[in-house]
Design goal:
- The protein has helices at about 5-20, 25-30, 35-40, 50-60, 65-70, 75-90, 95-110.
- The relative contact order is 0.09.
- It contains seven helices and no strands.
- The longest helix has 17 residues, at about 95-110.
- The chain starts with 6 loop residues before the first helix and ends in a 32-residue tail after the last helix.
- By secondary structure, it is mainly alpha-helical.
Length: about 140
């Protein structure tokens, strides 16, 4: 069987498993996958689905997003953006309205800095919270 381009993932998983002091069989049982399948992932022979990666991450008590990046499912910048959004949404010290405002500000800064991939509903130009222009149209660049 030819090796896929997931060797980095396999090496990383093996390292994490050994750090957690788990045998291959123990991790496979904890993640709900077969021992041979997990072995093939570690050796770079199989590319696991996002669901399998999530199960393995949970069993290892590590970030699933980190595994997604290593497997090529998620871009590093996307992971960082998702983590930033998750931290904002999980903060119990601010209310929902404040969280949405922070997400809108974050999206506007990303857009200003050339990252035009803001999540839906967080783009200040399309937010339904209020107008962006003095005429109340909400259009950032109204046509004359």
């Amino acid at each position: 069987m030819a090796s896929l381009n997931v060797g980095n993932l396999g090496e990383y998983l093996r390292e994490q498993r050994r750090t957690a002091q788990l045998s291959l069989r123990q991790l496979a049982d904890a993640a709900g996958v077969s021992n041979p399948y997990l072995s093939q992932i570690e050796r770079g022979l199989r590319k696991p689905s996002a669901e399998v990666l999530q199960q393995v991450a949970k069993a290892l008590r590590i970030s699933a997003e980190t595994l997604y990046v290593r497997a090529g499912i998620l871009d590093e910048r996307e992971r960082e953006e998702l983590e930033t959004r998750a931290v904002i949404l999980a903060d119990p010290s601010i209310n929902e309205r404040q969280k949405q405002v922070l997400l809108q500000i974050y999206a506007s800064f990303r857009k200003e800095n050339g990252h035009d991939d803001a999540a839906p509903g967080t783009d200040p130009d399309t937010a339904e919270d209020g107008p962006r222009t003095a005429d109340g149209s909400g259009a950032a660049n109204p046509q004359l």
